[in-house]
Amino acid sequence: MHPPVPLLLPHKAESTVELCSYIVPKNTQVLINVWTMGRDPNIWENPTSFEPERFLNSNMDFKGQDFELIPFGAGRRICPGLPLAYRMLYLMLASLLHTFNWKLEDGLKPEDMDMEENFGLTLQKAIPLKAIPIKI
Ligand code: HEM
Question: Which residues take part in binding heme (predicted)?
Answer without folding.
Answer: 79
